[in-house]
Write a structure and sequence with these properties.
This protein has helices at 13-22, 48-51, 67-73, 88-100, 110-113, 133-146, 175-180, 185-196, 208-213, 276-282, 296-309, 341-344, 353-360, 375-383, 398-410, 449-459; strands spanning 3-9, 28-35, 45-46, 59-63, 78-82, 86-87, 104-106, 121-126, 151-155, 169-172, 201-205, 215-218, 225-228, 240-244, 257-262, 273-274, 285-288, 314-324, 334-340, 365-366, 391-393, 415-418, 434-444. By secondary structure, it is α/β, with parallel strands linked by helices. Strands 8, 9, 10, 11, 14, 15, 17, 18, 19, 20, 21, 22 and 23 form a 13-stranded mixed beta sheet that branches. The protein has a six-stranded mixed beta sheet with strand order 3-4-2-1-5-7, with helices on both faces. The termini are far apart.
Length: 473
């Protein structure tokens, strides 16, 4: 007898779990998705084209708040929790809601959800949102491409288009592709650093088997269905696939090398947040980042936790080194600091790269944006009241981008410090002088990523330049 299932998610892991385990599984009937974290995703449908032959009408997406009544209405047997960066108390609170309504509460693991690549695959994950995964990924790509290797990145999903068919497989090789795919700020923050520097191609989307191996997707501009190559078969070539994880999720693909990132500015998260502890326990290598701005006590606390739960992992110490294009604009000025949105919201960070730069280069005051927010930015602060005197670069859609633009314009400041990985001024008008802050990973002491990657390249006999000492087949 079929089991009725609800998948509880946030437009990422939930869709992946469905695609890999439930889509063609006749033992289950997925009656609904529920949505959280992503504004406007609820009350849509997971389309029939993605849902498969067992779901000719697609699958409706409901607000998570309706979970108890949905369990009763659909006679649900199991609810699968499938989103990330939540404290254990939150996860078990949802479990209590599910159990009280009569259903089983399920957390799916790697065995049933990971896809195997035919290419050597490196995965990057973290214990919390905002630990420094992206800068770690960039460092890895920079070194490997320096050896002459073709690295193709795949990013954890961010499918915010109202029609998910437009995002089944996405390939980004240049800035124009960001516009073609109607990317939000959150998407551009992750994709743009890859393509602007022309280091590598990056893929993303909804169906991660098709993203890896190739499949059909709908062109968001023409509406036509087109065949897309996957990362393994990228037109520019592929020697190594790099999984660039999102939030603190574990990889969608089976890694040959798994590198985790931990954050001593939030000590204890590596053993108290889901699924970040999964990352900390699975990783072959763990970078303890930001040791340049964390206290020795917090660094040692993280180090002790990692040694206890994953004593076999290699530990790399790292610093997040800032670059500021116009530091003279900051000194003595009243500044508005804009930071990466998800890092401040569900990542719960109280300080980011923009804040550190503002303090380092002598800002006289950090202006509190809360009295000047409009529209959905006001709602964001109501939902996440602990953000404080920083402005999250929220932009899940056109309305949020406009609200962000209006909020910046209303805030009485001398300059704006932009601590996001993208150039906000390309698509948001900012009248005040702006300073862009970048950040790159720098290893301190040994071991280093170079040593880890040289070992990986030798093991897989990949290096065409022979710089690492291996002999390619």
């Amino acid at each position: 007898m079929k089991k009725n299932v609800i998948i509880i998610g946030a437009a990422g892991r939930d869709f992946h779990n469905f695609n890999t385990y439930f889509r063609d599984n006749k033992d289950y009937n997925v009656v609904a998705f529920t949505a959280e974290q992503i504004p406007g995703i609820d009350n849509r449908f997971y389309p029939k084209e993605l849902a498969g032959k067992l779901y000719p009408n697609g699958i409706q997406i409901f607000p998570e708040s309706k979970l108890p009544e949905l369990i009763k209405k659909f006679k649900v047997d199991e609810c699968v929790f499938a989103y990330s960066d939540k404290p254990y108390s939150y996860v078990m609170g949802i479990s209590a809601i599910v159990n009280a309504a009569g259903a089983n509460f399920v957390l799916m693991g790697p065995k049933d959800t990971m896809i195997k690549s035919k290419k050597p695959l490196i995965a990057v994950g973290a214990t919390r949102t905002g630990c420094g995964k992206s800068q770690t990924s960039r460092k890895i790509i920079e070194y490997l491409t320096g050896l002459g290797l073709k690295v193709v990145a795949i990013r954890h999903p961010m499918p915010y288009d109202p029609n998910l068919n437009n995002q089944i497989v996405q390939r980004f090789a240049e800035v124009a592709d960001l516009k073609k795919q109607n990317c939000t700020i959150e998407e551009m923050e992750e994709y743009e650093p890859h393509v602007v520097t022309k280091r590598n191609v990056i893929y993303a989307g909804v169906d991660y088997e098709a993203i890896l191996k190739g499949g059909m997707t709908r062109d968001p501009q023409t509406g036509e269905w087109v065949k897309m190559a996957g990362a393994e078969n990228d037109p520019d070539g592929c020697d190594i696939v790099l999984w660039d994880g999102g939030n603190n999720d574990f990889p969608f693909y089976e890694p040959d090398l798994f590198i985790g990132v931990a954050d001593p500015l939030r000590p204890g998260a590596e053993v108290s947040y889901y699924p970040g502890e999964v990352v900390a326990r699975m990783a072959d290598v763990i970078v303890i980042n930001k040791i340049d701005s964390a206290s020795l006590e917090n660094i040692n606390a993280v180090r002790a936790n990692l040694a206890r739960i994953n004593p076999k992992a290699k530990i790399i110490d790292g610093a997040s080194i800032l670059t500021v294009d116009k530091p003279e604009v900051i000194k003595g000025k009243r500044v508005l600091v804009i930071e990466d949105g998800p890092t401040l919201t569900h990542g719960e960070m109280k300080i980011g790269a923009g804040t550190v730069a503002a303090m380092k280069y002598g800002a006289s005051e950090l202006i509190d944006p809360r009295p000047y927010t409009v529209g959905e930015l006001t709602t964001t602060f109501q939902r996440y009241p602990n953000i404080g005197t920083l402005l999250p670069a929220m932009g899940y859609g056109e309305k949020q981008m406009k609200d962000l633009e209006k909020t910046i314009a209303k805030t009485p400041c001398d300059a704006v410090v932009i601590g996001t990985p993208i150039d906000l001024q390309r698509f948001i008008k900012i009248k005040q002088p702006c300073v862009r802050v970048g950040y790159e990973l720098q290893e301190i002491g040994q071991p280093t990523l170079k040593e880890v990657l040289d070992e990986f390249v030798k093991k897989h006999k990949l290096c065409p330049s022979k710089k690492c000492g291996c002999k390619k087949k």
